[in-house]
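Appendix C: a fully annotated inverse folding record. The material below is reproduced so that readers can follow the format used throughout the book. The structure is listed first as C-alpha cells, followed by the designed sequence.
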C-alpha cells in the first residue's frame, strides 16, 4: 500500500513538472514567433523606404561595403546593403553607418527599456520627470477622461465659461493628443475677441475637445520662439532634434548630432513626415548648407531661406549641450533619446517632447554622419553581449 501511495505521489509530481516544461516551451515558441513576425514587419517597412530613397540617393561603387557588412553581421538579423549605399551618398563611406533596421530591432531594445513605451508615449506624463519650467507651459490636460492643471490637480470644466476663464490670459495655444506620433492631430488656436479659432475656421469649445480628442490631450501655451529660428518658418514651432547617448562604458551622456527641423510654409508642425525638412547644425553654431526630407531629397532653398547663399549662425547653440544633458539625467534608464528642443524669445531652451522608440535615425545619418560615430564599436559589443535580453516588440 505504501509503495502505491509513493508511486502515485511521484507520478503527480512528474505530471506537474511536465506541464511546467510544456508551458515554458510554449512561451518560448510564442515569443520567438512574435519576434520573427516583428522582424519581418520592420524589415519590410525599411525595404519599402529604401526603394523610395534609392530614387534620390544611391552610391553604386562602394569600396568598403564588405567591411561594413562584416562589422554589422554580428547581429542575428538580415539587413540591406541599400542602407550603406544610400547614406554613403550623403556622408561618404563609413563602416560605422548604422543600418536603421538593426537599430530598430537589435540596438534600441537593449539600450532602452522598451517596456516603458506606453508610459513615455503619453505626453501627459512628461511633467512627471521633466520639470515644468523646462517645458512649454501646460494650461489644461485631460487624463483618462478627467481635467487637470499642469501639476495634475483636478479642475472642473463643466461649462464653456470655465474653459474661457482658464484661457483668458493667453493669445495663442496648441492642443496635442497625448498618444500621437509624427505631429498628427495637433491644432493651434488663436484668440479672436471672446472666442478661439484655428486656421480651418473651427472654434474651440468643450464640444470640440470632446469630439476631436475624446479622453486625453494636453493644452499648452504656444511657445513664442526665438526670432532667428522663427525666420525659417513663422507658422510652425521649429525645433532642434538633439540625439543623446548614455555611454555603456562610463554612463556619461554625449551628444553625437544636432539638426534643425523646419515646417513647410503654412504648417503648424515641423515634422518631416508632414512636409517639413531638416538641416545639420554644427556644434560651433553654423547651419548646414542643405535642407533634406525623409526620402533623401535635398534642396538649397526652403521657405525662402537659401542655405547655399547664406552662412547662418545660431549664437545660442552652445546652450543646447548642457541643457539636454541635464534633461537626459532625468531619464537614466533610457540610453538613446532624440529630444525636440525649442528656444523662446529670451533664448531659453524648452523641451517639446522626446523620442526613444521612434528614433528615426535617418534624420541624423543623412545630413550629419554615421549615427554613433566613435561610439559605434562599444555599442555593438554591448548589444551583442546582452543579446539574451528579451527583444521587445518595436512600436
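Designed amino acids, in order:
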Amino acid at each position: 500500500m505504501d509503495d502505491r501511495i509513493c508511486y502515485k505521489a511521484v507520478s503527480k509530481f512528474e505530471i506537474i513538472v511536465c506541464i511546467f516544461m510544456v508551458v515554458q516551451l510554449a512561451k518560448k515558441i510564442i515569443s520567438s514567433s512574435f519576434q520573427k513576425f516583428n522582424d519581418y514587419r520592420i524589415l519590410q517597412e525599411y525595404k519599402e523606404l529604401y526603394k523610395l530613397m534609392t530614387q534620390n540617393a544611391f552610391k553604386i561603387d562602394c569600396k568598403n561595403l564588405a567591411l561594413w557588412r562584416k562589422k554589422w553581421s554580428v547581429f542575428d538579423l538580415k539587413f540591406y546593403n541599400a542602407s550603406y549605399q544610400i547614406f554613403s551618398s550623403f556622408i561618404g563611406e563609413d563602416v560605422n553607418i548604422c543600418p536603421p533596421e538593426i537599430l530598430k530591432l537589435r540596438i534600441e531594445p537593449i539600450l532602452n527599456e522598451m517596456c516603458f513605451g506606453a508610459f513615455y508615449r503619453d505626453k501627459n506624463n512628461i511633467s512627471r520627470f521633466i520639470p515644468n519650467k523646462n517645458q512649454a507651459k501646460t494650461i489644461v490636460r485631460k487624463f483618462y477622461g478627467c481635467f487637470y492643471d499642469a501639476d495634475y490637480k483636478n479642475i472642473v470644466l463643466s461649462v464653456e465659461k470655465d474653459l474661457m476663464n482658464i484661457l483668458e490670459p493667453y493669445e495663442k495655444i496648441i492642443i496635442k493628443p497625448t498618444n500621437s506620433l509624427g505631429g498628427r492631430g495637433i491644432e493651434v488656436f488663436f484668440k479672436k475677441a471672446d472666442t478661439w479659432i484655428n486656421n480651418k475656421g473651427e472654434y474651440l469649445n468643450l464640444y470640440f475637445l470632446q469630439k476631436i480628442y475624446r479622453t486625453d490631450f494636453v493644452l499648452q501655451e504656444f511657445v513664442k520662439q526665438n526670432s532667428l529660428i522663427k525666420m525659417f518658418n513663422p507658422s510652425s514651432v521649429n525645433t532642434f532634434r538633439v540625439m543623446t547617448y548614455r555611454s555603456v562604458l562610463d554612463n556619461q551622456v554625449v551628444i553625437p548630432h544636432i539638426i534643425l527641423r523646419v515646417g513647410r510654409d503654412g504648417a503648424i508642425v515641423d515634422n518631416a513626415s508632414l512636409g517639413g525638412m531638416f538641416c545639420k547644425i554644427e556644434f560651433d553654431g553654423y547651419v548646414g548648407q542643405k535642407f533634406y526630407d525623409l526620402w533623401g531629397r535635398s534642396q538649397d532653398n526652403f521657405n525662402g531661406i537659401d542655405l547655399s547663399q547664406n552662412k547662418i549662425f545660431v549664437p545660442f547653440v552652445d546652450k543646447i549641450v548642457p541643457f539636454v544633458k541635464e534633461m537626459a539625467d532625468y531619464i537614466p534608464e533610457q540610453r538613446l533619446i532624440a529630444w525636440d528642443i525649442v528656444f523662446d524669445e529670451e533664448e531659453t531652451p524648452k523641451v517639446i517632447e522626446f523620442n526613444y522608440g521612434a528614433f528615426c535615425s535617418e534624420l541624423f545619418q543623412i545630413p550629419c554622419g554615421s549615427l554613433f560615430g566613435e561610439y559605434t564599436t562599444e555599442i555593438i559589443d554591448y548589444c551583442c553581449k546582452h543579446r539574451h535580453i528579451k527583444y521587445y516588440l518595436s512600436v
